[in-house]
Every structure is written in structure tokens, then in C-alpha cells.
Amino acid sequence: MALRRSVIGVVALTLFAASLLVLRGAPGASAAVNNAPPGIVPAIQQWTGGTGQLTLTSSSRVVVPAKSPAVIKKLATQVVEEFAEVTSLRLRVATGSPAEGDIALRIDAYADFGAAKPALRAEAYRLKVANGSVGIVGGGDKGLYYGTRTLLQAVLASPDHASLPAGTAVDYPNYAVRGFMLDVGRRYLTPDFIKSYLHWMGWLKLNTLQLHLNDNEIHAPDGDWPKAISAFRLKSTNPNFAGLGADKGYTRQDWDSFEDVAGANGVTIIPEIDSPAHSRAFIEFKPELGLNNGNSDHLDLSKPETTDFMKSVFAEFVPWFRGPAVHIGIDEYPADRAEQFKKYVNTMAPYVRSLGKKVHAWGSFTRMPGGGTGYDKGMSINSWNNGWYSPKAAIADGYKVINSNDNLLYVVPFADYYHGQGLDGQDIFKTWAPNIFGGDQNLAVQDPNLLGAMPAVWNDLVRADYTELQVHGLIDKSFDALAQKMWSGGAAGTDYTAFQNRAADVGRGPGTTYLSPDRAPGDLAYRRPVSASSVETSAFPPSHVVDGRGSTRWSSQYSDNQWVRVDLGGERRISSVRLNWEVAYGKDYDIQVSSNGGNWQTVAERRGRTTAGTDTITFSTATARYVRMQGITRGTGYGYSLYSLEVFA
What we know:
By secondary structure, the chain is an alpha/beta fold. Helices cover 24% and strands 26% of the residues. The radius of gyration is 27 Å and the shape is globular.
């Protein structure tokens, strides 16, 4: 039953509203308690179920108290726009007290947020569905925003995309830094891509995006560094820096757009300007500042003008950055120049602080004589390699650390090292946590010196031919699982398939259509768990058939009897599928359905197909949870290769 406003009397309206939270059932039966929390990602920390549900309608309002700060009013408007984007509901903003069917937003730093750490209360929230309305209380701006993410996800996860279970959620993060790093120095990623990720990160309650803004290929062609590909991605209009920024770079207007989107989605951007290694772009601009007469990607720190120049770079661009921190790099510099390096670090870190920013850095001090002794202690350290500077060594030296462990969290797209085909989402879900660094370097859960975690994508292969959406395809394999483990740890349980289905139910949220340009409206298979009888190579996994991109594919081994199946997450009424075959198409195959994944019924047959491309197959309506393409005969000497498997009601 839906809420609606009308001219009926106040008494009748009150009685009607009171009936809304009673579940349908047999006459006289008690309503069931909602013991299961809403299926959102990441999972809620604490849920107390009520009885019945609330169904929102386009008469529902998003209500903010009178004299609320502008940030709450702005969020209310944003929520209304987001509902319109991802549901059929058309809400409106109101000021004052909530009525039946409304969504009330407010901030109360002193509210009860359960076991939330005092330092993280600003990101905590309470969401209560009771008495015919929804109330969301945030400990701060971000907490209120995260509460609206839970609201939207819970609505999307409901069968009618309009309802919410009665109950109370108390939710908060386990870690302060729930991050992700993108290397845009070695490969340009478009503003649309970056802004889509900012939306998606906010949707998953990830709060920190580090942009690695300059770098170069790892090895110089023939040892000749002037031939190396390098870039610095910020483009200033200051004539003193004309030519420093790459042609494919970000203007101040671009950067402002990143900051605007980040601010609206609870994300803080940490810009990284990396030196004195990884500095070929700066040496291209000023060859006299490079080691070996400029034939290097390391700055020559023996020259005072080198440090002066890097100060000028930070002075120029730090005013662009709205976040509280800047990353200064300082990794992988030659150990035989340790004293020059230490002087540089101890000059640049306080200089950046003098510009009003906290300082982050990569950990490399173990490789330097004397380890971390004598270095500036006012930095937070990304512990990226246990040999270069382990988390325990950094903590012993007095630093707070962020888990960016290379063996566990690095992706180098399409390389034969560092998870070139993406992190394994199931492995992340089942075995990883922010305190896991590997070897003997694991920390205690929520160690007070562990700020959180930051997986990273490094575009080392600067000359390889791949697109940003292919990079996204690799990230997509584990992003939901990473967010889960950084926010509420094991609160999502141990069933990874169930978790995948929850992630598919809620999607990537508003503002992310750029990441799935080929997605068909109404496709029930989109982002659902997929399995296959075989895979040709790890580059062509079955997950590609449901990723919403027409350029990625699944390929089987080279034999006839192969299959790929999708789990729709629950029983659905379906009547058609659409297959998009690569050159290695199927000649003869069946479309089969199942309710349990074990007993299969053939609902359609295709025989004698002679070409690749799209094949739309309709059949009598069937009710099933699983859909399978069962190959019988290949059309070529290769295996079966599908760009997509779409399923429609």
C-alpha cells in the first residue's frame, strides 16, 4: 500500500498512516519482525528490526529543519535529484517538521552512534524507519550523506524500488581512511571517468581518492631518458609553468569540477606530486635539475635550485586543492644519496605544511642508511612494500600508516605482475582486511596507528593499448568487496555470491552511467554473479558478459560442450535473452533456466547459426533464478566467446 496525500480528514489520514507499517498476512496474524537488515553495500554495522515496511511515493518529501545549515539543504536537493535518476519516485524538498511518508534529515554530533570511535563519529549515522516516516541523523555532514546512501540503496534493493523495512540502523566506519589511488601521471584518465569514480566511491562510503599526478615509464628506452614517456597532469595558466603540464591534462576548471563532485559525495581528494624520483616530467621541463646531466628520472638534490623549483610547483598548485592533505611522493630514490634525500624530505614536508596542508608520503626509509631515523615525523605513510618500509617499522618510527601493500592491493593493468587482471573480489572478501599486510607484518584489527587502506592502480605499461573503461573492468572485480572490508569488515557475512547479488541490486549509484555505456535498460543480468564451464585465459573471465561494456568478453576453452550461467539473485519472470557473440560464435546452443542451479530446463534452442553478432531469443515466460547458455557445437575452431549475456523480463 502506498502513502499518498489527499483531502481526506486528519483522523482518517492518521488511521491510514498507522496501517502502513503492518505487513500483509492472514487475518489476525502478527506482522513479522524485519530481522534481516536492508541488503546494502557496505553492510550496516547494527540493525534493530521493526515490523512492516514503509512505501515511499512521489508525495513523499525530503524535510530539513528550519534554520538548517546550507549543507543539509544542498544534500536534500541532491537526494531528490538522485531519487529521480535511479527510481521512478519524484520527491520534493521541504523545510520544517516531517509528516507521514517523509524523509527527515538532520545533524546531531551528540546522538547515539553505538560503538563508533569518537574520531569517526562525524561519519556515523542513524536511520530509523518507523511511524510512517524515515529519519536520518548524521554525526556530521559526511555521516548524514552516508545515511542517504543507505536510504537510496535500501530502496533500490526492495522489489518495488520504493519500499523500506521498518527498523533502525546504527552505522559507522571501522577506519578513517577508506581510499583508492589512481595513477593518472602515466596514463591520462578523462574528467568524466574521475568524476564517475567519485560518485561511485561515495555510494560505497569510500572517502579518499588519491590522484598520482606525475610519473614516467619505469625504464628509459635504450637507457635514453629523453625518449621516455612522462607527464605532469596539471595545466597552469601561469607563464612560469608554460609547458610543464601535459597536453592531456587537467585545467583549474577541471580540478574545480573534481572537488565539487568529491564534496557532494563525501570524498576527499589527496593530490600527489611525486618527487624526487618518478620526476621525469619535471626534468623534461628543466633538464638542468636532473641527475646525470638530465639523463635520469631522479632530481639532482645536490643543487639548491632543485628544491626551490619543487617548492614553486607546490606553491603554484596547492591553492587548487581543497582537501586537508597533499602527498609528496618521496619513494625509491637512490640510497647512495641518502643525506641529500633526507635534507630534501625535511625541507619539503614542513614547507607543504606551511602552505596549510597535512603531508602524506610513500614509505621507503628501510632502504636508506639508518632507516627512518632523523626524518620529519609529521607525515602519514602509505606502507606499500614490506621490504621498502613495513608498517611495523613505520609505526616504530612514530608514523601513522595506510595499507597500500603492493602484493595484496596493487593492480597494474594487463601486466604479468601485480594483479594484471585485477584483484580477486572473492579473495578480498574472504581473506583480506585493512590490517593485513602479509608475512609477519599484519597489525591488530583497528590498530590505533593504522589509518586505513588505499588500494592502487598503477599504469606502468605506458605504451600498451588499453582504454580507461578496460581499466575500470579490472577495478570493478573487487571494488565492492574492498569497500565492504574497509567500512564494516565482516558484517556482510561469508557468502560471497549473496554479497555479489546485493552489490548488483544496489548498482553503482547515480552519476556513474559513463562506466557502463553499453548497458541495456532492464537487463536483469547486469553485474550479477557469473560462472562458466571454463575460461580460455584470465583476460576473458565470465564476469565480462554482464559488465555493461561491449568491448569485453568471456572466452571458453576450445571444445564444444561449454556453458556460461548467471545468477539473477532471486526468482524472476523472464521471457528473452540477448547474446552478443564475438568472432568465435556458437553454432548450436540452448538457453536453459533453473530455480536451484542444479535442475535445468531448456526454454529455447538455436541451431545452425552461421555468424557472430547479436542473437535475441524469446520464449514463453519462465520463472527462474539462473539462466545458462549451454553450448552444443562451436561455429569456429576456437571456443565460445561472448561479449554479453543479457536477460529481460
